[in-house]
Amino acid sequence: MVIKNQIPTAPHKKKLLKAVRFSYFSVFLGHSLWRSTFYNYSLEVIKLDQSEISWLFSVASIPGIFAFLLGFIAHKVPLYILACITLLLFGTGLLVLGIAIDNRGLLLGTFILSLGFSWYLPLAHNIYIREGSHRFVNRALGRLKSLGPLAAALTALLIYFFNHNRLIEPLFVISGCSLLLIALVVGKSLQGSYYHRNCTALNFSPSLYPFYLLNFISGSRSALFKTFIITQFVTAFHLSIFNMSLLFLAGNIMGIFGYRILGVLADKYNPVNILTGLYIIVAALFGCFGFVEVESEFGLRLAMVLFLIDSILFGSAVITDAYLKQADRGAYIVSDLATGMTFFHLAGFLLPIAGNLVWVNFGNDTVLTLGVIISLVGALASRFMTIIARQPP
Which CATH number fits domain 10-196: 1.20.1250.20, 3.40.250.10, 1.25.40.10, 3.90.1720.10? Predict the structure, then answer.
């Protein structure tokens, strides 16, 4: 079904983007709350054991792997209704977690929350890609995505206050109820124009092959980094929970600037060259981690510097998503983003398994070499992105 490019009026567009920013920040606030308290909340409050924790992580990854189904659903259900449903699911997941008393409640809450989060992001990014001009789409996406690490930084402060007063469960409930109300506000803002209509189903045109491959590579790089590098701060350098929280807070602050700076650079210069350069730097980071001396003061400082640099470069997703502005028609963008998320989460599921096999049989240096190879493949894949001449704003 071909959809005409209906452009909202300026006041409606301003209201629309403001509603998306507000909901985006709120969703990441709730997700950061869950991610930051997930392990301690499960072990200390619900009293789960380590084997049950592994089931929770598996459940959390399932909705992202099947995110491509959003393309089929969007073909039948208007986008503003889908946005409401995903926000309602996310809020419901937080509520269930807040009132959970056993592992079944945690499993249900985790699945519902992950489903709402994984399926909301393509809808939000679609709006910014579709409504933004060709010239400034990277910058607009950078500003939107920088709200994620900003919410995570704020969450760290909230957790310190609420956890100090033993109020984590009420915080889940309050956040869940807030998201339920926000869903209604966002749904009203999205009504009318394009977002009242349906979307076209899945699209696998050759112009999108680099996009899907780069999403898989991004998921691979992220999974390797989280699984085999961040854990070194605990196992090799013995950082406490408090020091780890400070490190993540600093990483989130760097991420805020990273998303915005990379968005500006991609709009000002050739985004393909920017993305290629980013992946080459990421490959160098993986290589540098191989020279970090464990259990030494200098090695710890070097690892922290490398971690903060990587936090800035994680904003490369801005350029990858903005590529859809010119690689595809508006009718396909939602399904393109959803399918890209499937590739991202599929890599996040497979790479820790493959990396663990490599680590057991060949050691940590080989895992870092695998990270270098994956990053260089990303640099090569970015060269196949076709960037057309910029249009005026």
Answer: 1.20.1250.20
